[in-house]
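Folds abound. A case:
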Amino acid sequence: MSEDTAPRREPETRPSLHDVVVQGIQDMLVSGEVGPGDRLPVEPVLAERFGVSRSSLREGVRALVAMGVLVTRQGSGTQVTSLDPHLLLRPLVFWSGLQGEESSHDVHQVRKALEVEAAGEAALRRTEEDVARLGAILDAAEPAIGALDHTAAMDQDLLFHRGLADAARNPVLGALIDALARPTLRIRMWQAMHRTGRLTAAHQEHRAIHAAVAAGDPVAARAAMYTHMAQVAAHLDG
């Protein structure tokens, strides 16, 4: 094969020093060398370990602070945060808040998949206290719906969906649902339901979800949530 016809080899890209620091600290977390609440070794030690300058180390640390992985406090050094999913998913919350009208259906489709799974898992893992708490939320929603109190009804709706996610005992699932349940989209949903007279129907759909969760029936819970989310999507542009 001639030099002209030989396939060109793409030049290897070396990770930036910033990425070396980020990856190095991630490896420390994955290995269990440090964990939530732990303090990182001092700058000179980390810089030598990663083979970077102290300025490059600080750049990588600043990136991890922005991600919610680390926190720096004067006099206390740099510590690992709680690594709670809600904290680490803040960039997704920010992204969700940037989405406009044209992407509402796309975001809702993702939420539907998450909510359906949350309902199924809640039916499998709920406690009697979860069932009672969800029922109390639905009871509290009825006066707001009867009075057409848009804000109060929306607040109870949010509490119900969060309660289901809590009952699913999956903090990552709950954090993802919260991240995508941005206020602007929820307001549009409730305005659409109010406009089309679906407030009462949506409440009855919530009752069906609750009944399936209380019965410990994941198949029925997923089906009831799917129906509810599909009905909401159908009225987003109503």
